[in-house]
Amino acid sequence: MEKTAIVTGASRGLGYAIARQLGLDGYQVVILATGPQEKYEEALQKLTDLGIIWHYVQGSIDASEDRKRLLEETLLRFGRVDVLVNNAGVAPLERKDILEMSEESFDRVIGINTKGTLFLTQLVANQMLKQEWIGKKRGTIVNVGSCSAEVSSTSRGEYCISKAGVSMVTQLFADRLAPEGILVHEVRPGVIATDMTSAVKEKYDAMLKQGVFPIKRWGTPEDVADAVSVFCSDKILYTTGSYLDIDGGFHIRRL
Prior knowledge:
Elements: E1 4-8, H1 13-24, E2 28-33, H2 41-49, E3 54-58, H3 64-78, E4 83-86, H4 103-130, E5 139-144, H5 157-177, E6 182-189, H6 195-198, H7 201-209, H8 221-232, E7 243-246
Parallel strand pairs: 1-2, 1-4, 2-3, 4-5, 5-6, 6-7
Helix pairs in contact: 1-8, 3-4, 4-5
C-alpha cells in the first residue's frame, strides 16, 4: 500500500525540499501553501518530472476550515495519511525590539507557527489512529522548529516564543501518541539559505566569517530535508519527542 505525506508550507524553501525528498523516498505528497497552484507550476512540474505523485491544496494552517479541507482532500485523493511535516511558519512582518513588539504581530506569528501546528497535528493524529497500521509504526509527525526555540533574538521575540511552543507541542504529542505507534520528532534549523533569511544575509555572512558556526557554511533546505527523511523512515524507531539540530553546530556552547 502506498504511503502519503502531508507537508505544509511546501511551495518553496524548506517545505519544497522536504516534499521533494519524501517524494523521492516513495511517498505520495500533499503540499499545502497559501498561494494559488498556478503560481508554483514550474516547481510542481519538477516534482512530476521526478516521478513524484503530488496533490496541491491552497490554504493556511491558522484557519480551521483550511486545516479540515487539507485532510479531506488528502483522504479523497490518497485515502490515508502516514506522515505529517509541520513546516509552515512565518517571521514577524517587521523586526521590533520586544519592548515595542505589537500584540497584532504576536497573535499572527503564534497563530500560524504554534496554534496552527498544534491543531493540525491534533486533526491528523486522530485520522492516523483510525487507519490500518502499516509497517513498523502507525505514523510519523515531524515539526520544523528552530534554534530560536532556545536562542534569544530580542528583535523578533514573537518568533522565538512561537518556536519554543512548537517544541512543547512536539513533547506533548510524542508523549500522548507513543503508545499508539505514532512517533513525533522535531528538527531545529539554524541559519538556512531561504527567503526568510535573505533579508539578513550580511549579518549571517559576517557571523560565518567570525567562526560563530563550527561548520562554516550556510545550511541548505536539503540539509533539513535529509533530516526529516531519516525521521520518517524506519531507521529511528526507539525514540520519540526528540529533536535534531540542523545548525552547523551552532548549539554547541564554546569557550
